[in-house]
Amino acid sequence: MMPTMEPTAPPRSINVSETQSGVIGSTSALTFELNLFTNYESVTISGCDAVANQFNTTFTVQDALGNVIPTQSNPCPGNPQQSEVVISNAAAGVYDVIFSGLDETANPSTDTWSISVSSVSFSPSLAPTMGPDSSDSDESQSDSASSDEELILELTVPDTLMGMVGDVDSDSITFELSLDSEYETLSISTCSALSNQFETTLTLFDSNDDIVATDSNSCSGNSQQAEIVLSNVAAGDYTIVMSGLDNADDDSDLWVLSTTGTVATTTTTTTTTAPPTIASPTTSPTTTLSPTGSPTTTTTTTTTTTTTTTSTTTTTAAPTTTTTESGSGSGSDSGSGSDSSDDLSLFFGAQKVADNDNESGLLGDADHEQGEHESYEFVLNLNKASWMNVWGIFGVVLLLNAMCVVCYFKKRNNELRY
User: Mean pLDDT in the chain?
Assistant: First the structure.
């Protein structure tokens, strides 16, 4: 049977690649002492378990001085109540891991807790070298030494990297920063209450190795620490050099570099232009009558084109029937025109259009000169009342015909009787 943890139990020691578990009992939180004997690229402290930790789990990591260490917390894939934390670039040392949330379990006397620690080691930075050669041994040692002096780490936003000064073989560290988008604000800082307790300098280079900014004393809490704050930073590849590690008092001193930023918001405007549209042609028939010769019918086709860039408008002219009468202008024809005008005055309006395309007045208003020919265009405009009069006359004629037929057959029947 697994032991029950008491609330006042001392910290339990735990190492990398180790898993521990127990019955919750009356304990609301557990403290573990994690010993890292070397630097790790990452250390993961996990509460993911299919049987244990059936409650909301929380992990807090502190250094030997009680300062909270920045970690990345992730939910467990199989149970969102469970969680795991990741320490990036974990330096060698002793850490306290506080496992809380145990008091949220439903059955403390039977439910269990579980914790496991895993790690990822740094990949070797140096390739194996060949054995000493008589003429190349000095050159090989020189190349090896120069490789040891260069430490390049990848950095993102936001991100925090830390390590021990003694693990760096040079007085500076180079970071590669890639920005996928434009940032409204970007901060690169060595400000820390625990780490970087020595004079540091930050230098930011663009992709062309040109200096963008540099700083050595902008942290408010410690004038020896550096911080670079930029606005409207374009997307691209940047290089950050943190120097001053040789100013540390001891190799066990810690260095840390953090980045934060705000991605710039972009507004996209889309403009759409309607293509030009040509309206379909319309046909307006015109009938021309000549009293001096044989009747002649002339059809004129008018094409209307409408072009627009913002909206489409199609204009279609309604078919219009016009009657044009040409005369010699003599007195003999004027009487005939007057009679026709009197007969159609109840239903139609008249309009005169000169041959030279100039507008003239109403019929009879223009001056008539001897020998000149003028054309008159009559537009038939039957309104609703006119159509009702026509149909009324047609109905009266039909009624009279019907009465005549009835009278005829009645008279014929009377004659046949006698």
Answer: 74
